[in-house]
Design brief:
With 301 residues, this protein is of the alpha/beta class. It contains 10 helices and 7 strands. Strands 1, 2, 3, 4, 5, 6 and 7 form a 7-stranded parallel β-sheet that branches.
Length: 301
Amino acid sequence: MLQVKLIVTGDDFGYCPRRNQGIVDCFLAGAISNVSLLVNGSAAADAAKLARRHNIPIGLHANLSEGSPVCEVLKTNSSLLNQDGFFHGKMGFRTALSKGLLNMSEVKQELKAQVELFQELTGHLPPHMDGHQHVHVLPEVRHVFAEVLEEYGIKYTRVPIEPGLHNCDWIPPSLMEFYLGVEEDSFNTVDVFTKHGIRWPDMYIGLSTMGRNMSVSSICSAIDSAVLQLTARAPHSSTGTIELMVHPGYPSVPPVGGCGEGPDDFSQSWERLHELQTLIKPELQSHYKSRNIQLCSFKDL
């Protein structure tokens, strides 16, 4: 039987104290094995301390779309900001990029500032770095992102191409359209990341199992589907790696939280708690054991 190494990454660590607590509770319950830190999150320093205290493997969740930049010179006059002085937002960033309004040297400046702040907060460079709202696989950004990773010797990232995504008929059409855009951007990013010597797990899961769509059965079937693909792709291989992206936590309570402009609807949603409660279910741990799946982090690869 294929030995599967599963990285269960809790995204948005540092977003607010309640998200931090939920992510820590998940880690202590053995439900997640890795976290991704938003260094511009309002509770980032607290998150870094919690990771140290509980020995939680931690990487960087690079943020160019929500809240405020960490680079001082970009906080006032920058192509990365909207008229209110904040990042353009998930869709706004994509629109500004498609119109050629974003200065890639400023993108690089901000990404480097986030790596430096991560090191300042945690005492080490991130073993892995991905993008909040998948900005790291967007056209142009992907090249700058890859250069920054290579420059700092950060070996691992995330490439969000999910097996079986097209068959997930429970995902609303508008969301599916966004996911398929992420998938297309990811396919176009593979060669860029490869050229810069960057690696990522063999398989990715997390779009079809997010929020209300997360259940023990949806996670198990997504994992089983990924394992089938792994086996078909490399029938003689004895090991394979999968990353499961999750967003557990106790919902944010305004005005506390966010990355500079308060917590968003996503973080205030009951779905954060739903993810937490699903991930800690014993049936999930039993499924991992029965499938020879071992939870690990990027530094164990």
